[in-house]
C-alpha cells in the first residue's frame, strides 16, 4: 500500500510517498514559495538525484499538481501511474476537542476543521486547502487527517484547564491543547521498542526541541501533560517564541511601546525566544557559534533555553510520580550533543547520568546515558510522516 503524506504550510507543501509494505520512502520533497515569485519544488525519488522544478504556483492546487506530475515523471518519478497511490494522509495542526485520534476525512470532518480555524488561524486554513486540492486532483482516493493536538486529548482536566473564569472554557474552548503530538507519540513508542519495554509500563518525558519546541509527559503510553498550551506560544523559550512569561508583561509592553494586538502578537511570536535574548539568530547553530566566540547574550540565550527544558523535565517527573526515560528529538534534540549534556547536567539527583562518549551522536537512535543511569536518556529521530502513514493504513 502506497501512502502519500501531505503537510501544507501557508506557502509550502511538504510530501512523502511511502510504501507501507516495507516503510520505504519512495519519494519526498518540498514545494515552497507558493503564491510568491521564485516558486519551486525540490523533489527526490528513491535512488535518484534530487531535482529542482521551478514553476509558478498561484496556490496549493498548482503545487500539488506539480508534485503529482513529478511522482510519475519518466525521468525522476517514483511510480508509473497515480493509481498506485492508495491513500493520502494529511497533517492537520488543530483538531480542538473534536478529535482525539486520526479520522477518515469526509464532509463532516471538513466542517469540524473549519470550526477549528479560529483556534489555529495560521495553520488550519492551509491544511484545509491541501485536503481540498487532493480531493479535486485525486477523486476517489481515501484520505485521513492526523492531528497535532489529538495525542494530548488524554490529558486530565486538571492539566488542561486554565485558572480563568470557567465560562471562558465553555464559551470559547480556552484550554491547553498541546502540539507536536504526532512526534511525541512516535518517539515515545520508538523509545519503548529500543528499551525492549512495554510502552504501557513506562513513564517518559519526550523533548521535541527545534525552532518550535515542546515537552510531553507520557505515562503508560498516554500524554498527561505538555508544555505548549492554547497556542504554541506557551512553554519553552523557543526560536522566536517567548514561552512562559508573566501575563501582565503583555499589557505593560503594549502601553509602553504603543503596540496594538497585532504588534504584541508579532513581538511575542516572532521577535522573542532565543532570538530576542541573543540578538543573533533564531537558529541554535548560529547562537552556539556566537557563544563559543564569547558572545555573552548568545550564551545567555542557550542557558535560558536549557534551564527551561530542565525545569519541565523535573516537573513532569513529579506529574507522573517518577520517570523511566527522557527522549530527545527534532532538529536540536537529535543533533546537539552539547545541549543534551547541558540540559541533563544537574539532574543526577533524579538518576539521570549522561555518558559523554555515547552522547556524541547525531540524528540516529541511541541510548546516551551511562549503563548505571537509573533513568535512560535516548536520542530518537522523529518521523511524523511515517506516523501519519501508519495511522492512514490502520484506519483504511
From TrEMBL:
<feature type="binding site">
    <location>
        <begin position="331"/>
        <end position="335"/>
    </location>
    <ligand>
        <name>ATP</name>
    </ligand>
</feature>
<feature type="active site" description="Proton donor/acceptor">
    <location>
        <position position="148"/>
    </location>
</feature>
<dbReference type="GO" id="GO:0000287">
    <property type="term" value="F:magnesium ion binding"/>
</dbReference>
<protein>
    <recommendedName>
        <fullName>Acetate kinase</fullName>
        <ecNumber>2.7.2.1</ecNumber>
    </recommendedName>
</protein>
<dbReference type="GO" id="GO:0005524">
    <property type="term" value="F:ATP binding"/>
</dbReference>
<dbReference type="InterPro" id="IPR000890">
    <property type="entry name" value="Aliphatic_acid_kin_short-chain"/>
</dbReference>
<keyword id="KW-0460">Magnesium</keyword>
<feature type="binding site">
    <location>
        <position position="14"/>
    </location>
    <ligand>
        <name>ATP</name>
    </ligand>
</feature>
<feature type="site" description="Transition state stabilizer">
    <location>
        <position position="241"/>
    </location>
</feature>
<dbReference type="GO" id="GO:0008776">
    <property type="term" value="F:acetate kinase activity"/>
</dbReference>
<keyword id="KW-0067">ATP-binding</keyword>
<feature type="binding site">
    <location>
        <begin position="283"/>
        <end position="285"/>
    </location>
    <ligand>
        <name>ATP</name>
    </ligand>
</feature>
<dbReference type="GO" id="GO:0005737">
    <property type="term" value="C:cytoplasm"/>
</dbReference>
<feature type="binding site">
    <location>
        <position position="384"/>
    </location>
    <ligand>
        <name>Mg(2+)</name>
    </ligand>
</feature>
<keyword id="KW-0418">Kinase</keyword>
<dbReference type="Pfam" id="PF00871">
    <property type="entry name" value="Acetate_kinase"/>
</dbReference>
<dbReference type="InterPro" id="IPR043129">
    <property type="entry name" value="ATPase_NBD"/>
</dbReference>
<keyword id="KW-0479">Metal-binding</keyword>
<keyword id="KW-0547">Nucleotide-binding</keyword>
<dbReference type="InterPro" id="IPR023865">
    <property type="entry name" value="Aliphatic_acid_kinase_CS"/>
</dbReference>
<comment type="pathway">
    <text>Metabolic intermediate biosynthesis; acetyl-CoA biosynthesis; acetyl-CoA from acetate: step 1/2.</text>
</comment>
<keyword id="KW-0808">Transferase</keyword>
<feature type="binding site">
    <location>
        <begin position="208"/>
        <end position="212"/>
    </location>
    <ligand>
        <name>ATP</name>
    </ligand>
</feature>
<comment type="subunit">
    <text>Homodimer.</text>
</comment>
<dbReference type="GO" id="GO:0006085">
    <property type="term" value="P:acetyl-CoA biosynthetic process"/>
</dbReference>
<dbReference type="InterPro" id="IPR004372">
    <property type="entry name" value="Ac/propionate_kinase"/>
</dbReference>
<keyword id="KW-0963">Cytoplasm</keyword>
<feature type="binding site">
    <location>
        <position position="7"/>
    </location>
    <ligand>
        <name>Mg(2+)</name>
    </ligand>
</feature>
<feature type="binding site">
    <location>
        <position position="91"/>
    </location>
    <ligand>
        <name>substrate</name>
    </ligand>
</feature>
<dbReference type="GO" id="GO:0006083">
    <property type="term" value="P:acetate metabolic process"/>
</dbReference>
<feature type="site" description="Transition state stabilizer">
    <location>
        <position position="180"/>
    </location>
</feature>
<comment type="similarity">
    <text>Belongs to the acetokinase family.</text>
</comment>
<comment type="function">
    <text>Catalyzes the formation of acetyl phosphate from acetate and ATP. Can also catalyze the reverse reaction.</text>
</comment>
Amino acid at each position: 500500500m502506497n501512502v502519500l503524506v501531505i503537510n501544507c504550510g501557508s506557502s509550502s507543501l511538504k510530501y512523502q510517498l511511502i510504501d507501507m509494505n516495507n516503510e520505504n520512502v519512495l519519494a519526498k520533497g518540498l514545494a515552497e514559495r507558493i503564491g510568491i515569485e521564485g516558486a519551486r519544488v525540490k523533489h527526490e525519488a528513491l535512488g535518484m538525484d534530487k531535482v529542482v522544478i521551478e514553476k509558478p504556483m498561484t496556490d496549493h492546487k498548482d503545487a500539488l499538481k506539480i508534485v503529482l506530475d513529478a511522482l510519475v515523471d519518466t525521468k525522476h518519478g517514483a511510480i508509473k501511474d497515480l493509481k498506485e497511490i492508495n491513500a493520502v494522509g494529511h497533517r492537520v495542526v488543530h483538531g480542538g476537542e473534536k478529535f482525539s485520534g486520526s479520522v477518515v476525512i469526509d464532509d463532516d470532518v471538513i466542517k469540524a476543521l473549519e470550526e477549528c480555524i479560529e483556534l489555529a488561524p495560521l495553520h488550519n486554513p492551509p491544511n484545509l486547502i491541501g485536503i481540498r486540492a487532493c480531493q479535486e486532483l485525486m477523486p476517489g482516493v481515501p484520505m485521513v487527517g492526523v492531528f497535532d493536538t489529538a495525542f494530548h486529548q488524554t490529558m486530565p482536566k486538571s492539566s488542561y484547564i486554565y485558572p480563568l473564569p470557567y465560562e471562558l472554557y465553555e464559551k470559547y474552548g480556552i484550554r491547553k491543547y498541546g502540539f507536536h503530538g504526532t512526534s511525541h507519540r512516535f518517539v515515545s513508542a520508538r523509545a519503548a521498542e529500543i528499551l525492549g519495554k512495554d510502552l504501557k509500563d513506562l513513564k517518559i518525558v519526550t523533548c521535541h526541541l527545534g525552532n518550535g519546541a515542546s515537552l510531553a509527559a507520557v505515562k503508560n503510553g498516554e500524554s498527561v501533560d505538555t508544555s505548549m498550551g492554547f497556542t504554541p506560544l506557551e512553554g519553552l523559550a523557543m526560536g522566536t517564541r517567548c514561552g512562559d512569561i508573566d501575563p501582565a508583561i503583555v499589557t505593560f509592553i503594549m502601553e509602553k511601546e504603543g503596540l496594538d494586538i497585532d504588534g504584541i502578537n508579532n513581538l511575542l511570536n516572532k521577535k522573542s525566544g532565543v532570538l530576542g535574548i541573543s540578538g543573533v539568530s533564531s537558529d541554535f547553530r548560529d547562537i552556539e557559534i556566537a557563544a563559543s566566540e564569547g558572545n555573552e547574550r548568545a550564551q545567555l540565550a542557550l542557558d535560558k533555553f536549557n534551564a527551561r527544558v530542565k525545569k519541565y523535565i523535573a516537573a513532569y517527573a513529579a506529574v507522573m510520580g517518577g520517570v523511566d526515560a527522557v527522549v530527545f528529538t527534532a532538529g536540536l534534540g537529535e543533533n546537539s550533543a552539547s545541549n543534551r549534556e547541558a540540559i541533563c547536567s544537574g539532574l543526577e539527583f533524579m538518576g539521570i547520568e549522561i555518558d559523554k562518549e555515547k552522547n556524541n551522536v547525531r540524528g540516529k537512535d541511541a541510548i546516551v546515558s551511562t549503563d548505571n543511569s537509573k533513568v535512560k536518556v535516548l536520542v530518537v529521530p522523529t518521523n511524523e510522516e511515517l506516523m501519519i502513514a501508519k495511522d492512514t493504513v490502520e484506519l483504511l
